[in-house]
């Protein structure tokens, strides 16, 4: 196993020399198969493409562009799928970050001990990824596993990401104008947003039983309806008794921004991802906060790209 890792790492070293590079403030990104990745994440992607990750048909993936509501979805899926295992008064989400309960494959796949730990984990295993659907290898896409994609207004993603990068250590301030410019060009980690979103949107249109496409906005508007959709999608619909017992409401409340943000674990504890702290994942949790940060001109730049991209793909939301 170690030797196979090494082969991919050698390939990574060779490939990365040949890729277009953008030296950003957070260590640089490289363009690979149309998307921009940091060096670490590219390593993870190559490992997945080289089939170091062995998927199971029962696996569930939370797929998102960063800052789309990944933390929320991780919590909702974990609570929904495991609802018969835990008491709401003594729930793992009360003492663990959603990021520790639903690990990101993208970086952790580089750790051999992670790979062996997940091998025998009971089904259904739940993972998160920010990789675009089209870059995942056939063995993952055709494994029968399911994906839940969360999409969000790119203006809110951009603003959320702008706040987030300033929480990283050692970073000089980035102007909003520069952030809009990089985002529009797609030169941000896992960008361009539009191609990312379309990779899942198109796949969900041709295989709705495999890919559920949700939006942060509809989750905010009616979380009860969306959690019921989620449960059905993963093949675990709520029974009439569960609905009358208020189980859906309990899940929604447990995973709400207000509840999670105020838990000790999410207020003070460092995340498994070395640069981030758990509180960094909870900022405002609102739809449309971009209005407080983007000028009408900046917003128009983003909206025009969205419109153009959707029109050229013939997709309506
Ligand atoms: P804001 O910065 O707009 O507040 P991700 O989890 O993909 O990194 O996305 C983070 C965004 O989701 C942040 O948006 C964060 O506040 C919001 N968020 C985190 N937990 C949430 C929850 N339980 N409900 C709603 N939004 C949540």
TrEMBL record:
**What molecular function terms (GO) are annotated for this protein?**
sulfotransferase activity
UniProt keyword annotations, A-Z = Membrane, Transferase, Transmembrane, Transmembrane helix
Q: Where in this chain does the record put each Sulfotransferase domain?
A: 58-312
UniProt record similarity statement = Belongs to the sulfotransferase 1 family.
- What is the name attached to this protein's record? Sulfotransferase domain-containing protein
What is the scientific name of the source organism?
Erythroxylum novogranatense
Range of the intact protein held here: 330 to 646 of 648
């Amino acid at each position: 196993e170690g030797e196979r890792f090494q082969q991919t790492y050698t390939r990574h070293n060779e490939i990365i020399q040949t890729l277009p590079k953008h030296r950003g403030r957070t260590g640089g990104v490289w363009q690979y198969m149309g998307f921009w990745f940091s060096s670490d994440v590219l390593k993870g992607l190559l490992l997945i493409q080289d089939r170091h990750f062995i998927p199971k048909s029962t696996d569930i993936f939370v797929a998102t562009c960063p800052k789309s509501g990944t933390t929320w979805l991780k919590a909702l899926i974990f609570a929904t799928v495991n609802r018969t295992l835990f008491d709401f008064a003594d729930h793992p989400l009360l003492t663990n970050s959603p990021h520790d309960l639903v690990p990101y494959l993208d970086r952790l796949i580089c750790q051999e001990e992670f790979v062996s730990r997940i091998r025998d984990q009971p089904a259904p295993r739940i993972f998160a990824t920010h990789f675009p659907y089209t870059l995942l290898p056939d063995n993952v896409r055709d494994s029968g596993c399911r994906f839940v994609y969360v999409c969000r207004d790119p203006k809110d993603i951009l603003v959320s990401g702008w706040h987030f990068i300033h929480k990283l250590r050692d970073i000089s301030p980035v102007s909003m104008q520069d952030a809009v410019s990089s985002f529009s060009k797609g030169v941000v980690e896992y960008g361009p947003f539009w191609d990312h979103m379309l990779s899942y949107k198109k796949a969900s249109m041709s295989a709705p039983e495999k890919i559920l496409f949700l939006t942060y906005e509809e989750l905010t508007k009616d979380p009860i309806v969306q959690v019921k959709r989620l449960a059905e999608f993963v093949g675990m619909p709520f029974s009439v008794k569960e609905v009358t017992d208020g189980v859906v409401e309990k899940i929604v409340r447990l995973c709400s921004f207000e509840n999670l943000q105020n838990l000790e674990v999410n207020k003070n504890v460092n995340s498994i991802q070395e640069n981030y702290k758990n509180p960094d994942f909870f900022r405002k949790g609102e739809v449309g906060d971009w209005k407080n940060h983007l000028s009408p001109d900046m917003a128009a730049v983003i909206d025009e790209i969205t419109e153009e991209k959707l029109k050229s793909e013939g997709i309506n939301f």
